[in-house]
Amino acid sequence: MDRPVSLRARSAAVLLPLLGMFLLMPPFIGLFTARVYLFGVPLIVIYLFGVWLFLLLAAAGLARHLAGEAPPDAPPQPEP
Amino acid sequence: MLSPNLVLATALAYVTLLFGVAFIGDRRARQGRLGWLRSPLVYTLSLSIYCTSWTFYGAVGSAARNGLEFATIYLGPTLVFVGWWFFLRKLVRIGQLHRITSIADMISSRYGKSASIAALVTVIAVAASTPYIALQLKAMTDSFQVISSAGPDALRGIASAQPNFQLTFWIAAGMAAFTILFGTRTIDVDERHHGVVAAIAVEAVVKLAALLGIGLLVVFGIGGGPAEIFARMPVDMLRTDEVFGSRWITLTLLAGAAVVCLPRQFQVTVVELDSESHLRTASWLFPLYLFLISLFILPIAIAGLSFLPAGANPDMFVLSLPIWAEQPGMALFAFLGGFSSATSMVIVACIALSTMVSNHLVLPIALRLPWVQLDATGEMRRFLLTTRRISIVVILLLAFAYFRISGRADALASIGVIAFAGAAQLLPCLVGGLFWRQANARGAFAGLLAGYLLWGFTLFLPSFKGDLFLSPTDISNGLWGLSWLRPYAMLGLNGLDPLVHSIFWSLSINTLLFVGVSLIGEPRPLEHLQSSLFVDVFRHRGADTSRFVSRSAAAYDLNVLAQRLIGVDEARQFFARSGHGSDLVPHRQIADDALITELERKLAGNVGAATARAMVSQVVTGETISLDELLKIADETQRMRDHSHELETQSRQLAHSARELQLANERLLLLDGQKDDFLSQVSHEVRTPLTSIRSFAEILLDTPEVEAERRQRYLRIIHDESLRMGRLLDDILDLSVLEGGHAPWALVPVDPQQALVSALRVCEGLAAGAGVRLWQAEQAPAVKVLADSDRLAQVFINLIYNAIKYNTDPKPQVWVSSRLDAGVYELRVEDNGPGIRPEDRAHLFQKFSRGWADTAAAAQGTGLGLVISWQIARRLGGSLELVDGRGTGACFCLRLQAQAQAQAQA
């Protein structure tokens, strides 16, 4: 349980929401508003839910690398 | 259309089921058999109270009205949870360490356990949550009326003209009963409510299944596939051209803030959390839940718009579509889903709010009132429970009142957003408190108050459309007729969406005041301490503050205090564990700092840090907070950083020195080896002539009768050899002088050509004797170099001498040329002899190297000439090297820096 979390995993954990913000906020998201249909579904809908799915899958993949130090479940003993 | 009785019976059956689940959950928790109750899955499902009836019914309404905008409400939390490592992990860790009971407790603990901040946060939370609870009541009432009404009203999703307030009242009463029963049965350790969590986990599954069921029915039952559904989409329903603007950003921000700051979210995310590792699972499982919830929102909205009669209420599409499709079972299921999402939200919100109201508003006041007696054993616990029960009733009544007043406020979504905006006012001081050391109580208070007032003025009050405090004229023309005080255009800021406008003013003024006032003031010692404990929570192990706070109290008094809140048995256990025995006598045992701190922490787990501190302060005396210790921990981080930086530098320096030392050692070893070689070579060189001298001298001594001619020859050899030995010794001496560089040379400008002429003159005889043709090629112009002319001639002679002597060519020739190249005097001596073997070139200028080892003449040289020449060239500031010549022979090049032309011509 008490294995150290790699620097790469920690950086990824901080960067993932920022990437999500970039992908989901204007102006970038505006690139996908064209009236194009994929399998009969508007492109923007596919893009939005695709990014969503990517984010949660990435978080799931990352979570395994972020086991981290054990949380102090037991209250600490007062020092004598 | 279903009969009201059937719907009512189903709802009651469902509620009974929930009671059962909550009861079992509570009992298992009490027996310590938590099992699945503490699994990450249940934790994630409990988080889903984020999806209230506003989601269940309102998301479809929002999609029908504003297209894709509904997604922001779920994208914000997705981003927050996906980024859990950065923020939520810290929040949760602090919550667990400090036994935080609510968001108000969290913020007030951070700012020096300030009771006033706790009270303010509580007021904000109640104000922001009341409309939200009202929204749930409204949704439940509407849905009940829609599903049980007959005819076109059901399809249009419009409850009969007047909301059934009686129904709403009874729903509210039922909620209050459930919450009081399972939420305030006792004051649990750490304020966990396992029964409630179990019930809302069940509700989370029901509402997700219901929404997915409706979605599948719509897409594959009614619609005939996703493509067909989207083909029915009204042109521009998604509003892709305008939706990705300031409202998109604002709503995402609000939703992200709400999932942390809403009191009920804080309750399930932080307070009810069992183990920090659950958060890791929730980081993707909760976004997945939101993803699934959102998946069918658009298709349902499209179906509602295209199948239901025009003018149908989009907020009730989820319910009216199955009615239209004549699927009463599905409609009932949808009703239960909406009922689930509303009840779970109301229950948890009431628990969270009642905890806050009792801990931070009622109890602090009661403790100050002289006529409230809470001194008897367990009295305070009973008082707290009663307060919480009353608070729950009051909060639900407030929500009911809000619903009555704003009954005509139309869309669900706008009410939800008001609550989000109110909760978002807590964000600056919460985030700042977790990451910014300097943030202090006064800044937090100022920011919160300003944000709260601005939110109330620009969003909350105008939402009543003139029915509460602000009249319609105030809203359109400004308060007291002042045009710069218009709620939707503060200071004349026109043209913004009312939500964006309100968020802009409230959050920016909130943050500015928070930061500004924090920067002006100095934190009090306790704030300083708490700030350090919160900001550096991952560096300090544990929440033990006893080393910073020193105070004294009689253990007996503390015991009495503890008994008032946690009861006799638990208090006795506590004091027994801490080693004070269970029989405490007044004025006898004195409690140490650690015990007082531990007790305060224990009490804080029930009544919040601020109140616990106030209670403990009643019995302790002489509290001092060690500023030195504080400064130490405040600087600890910096020191650790400095220290590690220092270590790093030192280790780098050490590595550097080690490398240098190693190099030096290698050089020394090399030199040592060279010295040994040199000595053995010298002795060898000296031994050869010495041996021949001794042997010839012995012959002469032993055989006196040797003939004169041979005697003459032997004596000649002895003479020659001793001369050679003398030369060798002279050279060695010369070399050691050169290498040591002891005596400075008097360098004067000399003409190298003159030295060359004299050197050539010396060598002419030798060349003639050896039959070597000596060519003098190119000549440098008159130039001066700084040198010792004798030494310079010595180098020339040595080079020419070598070229002549070791030339084995049948027609031996030597070329001597000199030139001036870019201020450098260059002399080349080249021969057509065998040249230097490539493997010898590297150590050509080493002692006794003898590049011409295989020539017969080699034996006669000392092997030091080239080394001496090289050393001289170096001492003169020039260089001597072997360069590529025109043929096979060796070509030596001597370069010396010429003096400036003007001087040379002078």
**Distance between the amino and carboxyl termini of chain A:** 28 Å
Query: Which consecutive residue ranges of chain A, at least 5 long each, have pLDDT under 50?
Result: 69-80
Q: Tell me the number of helical segments of chain A per DSSP (H or I, 4 or more residues long).
A: 2
State the assembly state of the protein chains: heterodimer
Distance between the termini of chain B: 123 Å
Number of strands of chain B: 12
Characterise the protein shown here.
The complex is a heterodimer of chains A (80) and B (906). Chain A has 80 residues and is mostly helical. Chain A contains 2 helices and 2 strands. In chain A, a hairpin with a 2-residue loop joins strand 1 (37-38) and strand 2 (41-42). In chain A, helix 1 runs antiparallel to helix 2. The longest helix of chain A is centred in the last third of the chain and has 23 residues, at 43-65. Chain A is elongated, with a radius of gyration of 19 Å. The relative contact order of chain A is 0.17. Mean pLDDT of chain A is 79; it is low at 69-80. Chain B has 906 residues and is of the alpha+beta class. Chain B is 66% helix and 6% strand. Chain B is built from 35 helices and 12 strands. In chain B, the strands form 4 sheets. Chain B has a 5-stranded mixed beta sheet. In chain B, a hairpin with a 7-residue loop joins strand 11 and strand 12. In chain B, helix 10 (194-223) runs parallel beside helix 14 (276-295). The longest helix of chain B has 76 residues, at 627-702. Chain B is elongated and about 155 Å long. The relative contact order of chain B is 0.09. Residues 902-906 of chain B have low confidence and may be disordered.
